[in-house]
Amino acid sequence: MILMNVIRQCLLRPARMAGCITLCFSALAFTGLAYAEPFSFPQAWQQLQQVSDHLQAKNQHVNRAKAEEHAGDALNYPSINIAGSYTRLEKPIELDLQDLNPLASLDASSLPSTITEVLATIPSSMYVTPFTEQDVFRASLQAMWPIYTGGRITAAQGIHAAQVSESEQEFELASRELFLQLVDRYYAVSVTHTLADTQQQLVNSLSLHVSHAEKLEQQGQIAKVERLNAQVALENAKVDFGKAKRQYEMAEIALARMLHVPTVSPDTPLFVLKQQPSLSRLSQLTLTQHPALKLLEAKETQANGLVDLEKGGYFPTVYLYGNYTLYEDDSLFAQMEPDWMVGVGVSIPLISRDGRSGKVLAAKSALLQARYTKAQTKQDLSLLIDQSYRQMLQAQEEVEALNASLALASENLRLRELAFNQGLSTSIERVDAELNLTAVKTKQLGAKYRYMQAYAKVMAVSGQVDEYINRIEIQGASHAN
């Protein structure tokens, strides 16, 4: 459309063909930038959810928390392990019968001579019984199963489950923040493209005005200063068009990089709802379902679990244990020792140096901190939804109010154009009317952009992102029709 307008105006003013050629190349460059595969906002949102490295990192954090929760289930199971050992003794363990009663206390002089003679013939090594070798090898299967820990296992598992919930809410918060960022960048491309289009139309219109001014100057109907005024306005419009085009380029690059695509051309138009959503419903949804509140609830659950975990240190631990010998030396001691054993053990803490009382107080402080933070967050969210909703209404009022200004500016430009061509109005008046129309268009476009931002924030804060997408699809379908 821009290029066709430029060509049409060039054909109407062959005397300024060189300037027209420059405008044509400028329009070609701008339309070349704008040409890309159309991308609707729902498509952009779906693409962003798939390619966002930030969301992927948050998702892996959720997976990590779930894996740790699954690992915590093993606390309910017994532990079984194989233990092996090698021991080098100072000397083998032996028992000398001469060191035991009654031989140890026996007085040989009191015995009959025949018995004394018989005992004298027995070597001393015959009295020694070896129990172990000097090198001892052992291998056994050991098992231990806690059956009561004062609630510490249950508390630890509850903390793991709350950490999963916390990571999931962090993912949801990141998703909503990314959604709002996409709204800003997506519609920024549309806005900057429209602004560049508007500036291009202003350049085209002022170029035609300069051509008419030159003819009127040649015919002596206007002074030279009138033509110079039109020429200055044209040059300023060209500078503004260059700025608008660069802003569009930067906005398009930012959106394309965000979506991981070479180029992108948004085709979902800006819109303003005729009927705004209910503030009371949005506030209720925000204060009951916002992920920040659920995240703090998860932190509160973790703090409660930490209190129970630290209090569990004051209770005894009861456990089952067992041992089965897999390998042992061929010694008398090994023959005497049983192959397996099972039993019940109990451990009662009396005095500890781990500062249990201080840890309990710290855990209670963490619990109170989570509760106070949750209360403050509710106030902040209530204020945020109220402010965003009123910003949306303000932007809507500006858009509707500027409709009348746009109609007035268009009509004023038409009348100034007719008056200037008939010599009844100055070039300054005609240029001012053109600039005023462009300013009104720009102001209304900015109001529509602010409305889309405020509406998106209201829906994101209240958790109505899907409804926002559905509304965009409805508006896009009605716009196409």
Automatic annotation (TrEMBL):
It comes from the Bacteria. InterPro entries: OMP_efflux (IPR003423), TolC-like (IPR051906). Keywords: Cell outer membrane, Coiled coil, Membrane, Signal, Transmembrane, Transmembrane beta strand, Transport. Transmembrane segments: none annotated. Residues 385-412 form a coiled coil. Residues 1-36 form the signal peptide. It is found in: Cell outer membrane. The keyword Transport applies. Belongs to the outer membrane factor (OMF) (TC 1.B.17) family. This is Transporter. It comes from Shewanella saliphila.
